[in-house]
From TrEMBL:
Protein's UniProt name: ABC transporter ATP-binding protein
Record carries keyword Transcription regulation: no
Family statement: Belongs to the ABC transporter superfamily.
Species of provenance: Paenibacillus rhizoplanae
Domain ABC transporter: 2-221
Keywords, alphabetical: ATP-binding, Nucleotide-binding, Transport
Gene3D superfamilies noted in UniProt: P-loop containing nucleotide triphosphate hydrolases
SMART domains hit by this protein: AAA
Xref: InterPro entries: AAA+_ATPase, ABC_transporter-like_ATP-bd, MacB-like_ATP-bd, P-loop_NTPase
Domain of life according to the entry: Bacteria
GO molecular function, one term: ATP binding
Length: 222
């Protein structure tokens, strides 16, 4: 379970302090699929970055199971991410000069998987996302929807416990959106916990619960 309590985060720009998260309280259970909605600038990506262990909060608590994530140093936070979190960031950037297969294989290479394991795992996610046909294409030539699917494949290839996605269907056509949602549902049915930031009600509708961020807090709406 992920449990966040009294989380606060502010950003300074010059002499102005922007209190983005003022008192965020959130519990997400293992195997749940939840949506986080809210107006632009309400702090959704900031919250996701903290949940992914990429950004520090100013104060509050964040427990991932029994792990006190905010107490982790940089190295332990990187390990925490590697073992637990698949993060699909907004407008994901792929690594140019490498083909689709090698982009998806990257996290597996970092965690020292064998060549045969890499081939088997990458082939599986390519097939699940219906992109086996572009496995050996250079990423520079991909469409927006294909790029998004490759970014999702890269985030899930290590089979993380929790998948965090920031606007995963933001820039894709309706058919690709349906494929991506089906994939999230399938991963969720396999037991993955999924947290999706979205402006799209259709995405929220397939989630178990929806939270709404406003005025620095995050409240359950359905
Ligand atoms: N590193 C940073 N430095 C300064 N300000 C930041 C930083 N990151 C985010 N902010 C500010 O925090 C506020 C919340 O940003 P955030 O990206 O979390 O919002 P959001 O709800 O995800 O927005 P959107 O829906 O447009 O993606 C914004 O005013 C943004 O400018």
């Amino acid at each position: 379970m992920l449990k966040v309590s009294h989380l606060q985060k502010s950003f300074l720009s010059g002499s102005h302090r922007n209190d983005v998260l003022k008192d965020v309280n959130l519990e997400i259970h293992d195997g749940e699929m939840v949506a986080i909605m809210g107006r632009s600038g309400s702090g959704k990506s900031t919250l996701l970055n903290i949940l992914a262990g990429l950004e520090q909060a100013d104060c509050g608590n964040y427990y991932f199971g029994s792990t006190d994530v905010l107490a982790l140093n940089v190295v332990h936070a990187a390990n925490f991410r590697k073992h637990n979190i698949g993060y699909i960031i907004q407008n994901s950037v792929l690594i140019h000069g490498k083909n689709v297969f090698n982009n998806i294989a990257l996290p597996l290479k970092y965690s020292k998987h064998s060549k045969s394991q890499i081939k088997q795992k990458v082939s599986f996610v390519l097939a699940a996302l219906h992109i086996s046909n572009i496995g050996y294409s250079p990423v520079e030539v991909l469409s927006g929807g294909e790029t998004q699917r490759v970014a999702i494949a890269r985030a899930i290839v290590q089979e993380p416990k929790v998948i965090i996605a920031d606007e995963p269907t933001g820039s894709v056509d309706e058919e690709t959106e349906d494929d991506i949602l089906k994939l999230f549902r399938m991963l969720n049915e396999q037991g993955k916990t999924i947290i999706i930031v979205t402006h799209n009600q259709k995405v929220a509708d397939i989630c178990d619960r929806t939270f709404y961020m406003k005025n620095g807090s995050c409240n359950l709406i359905t």
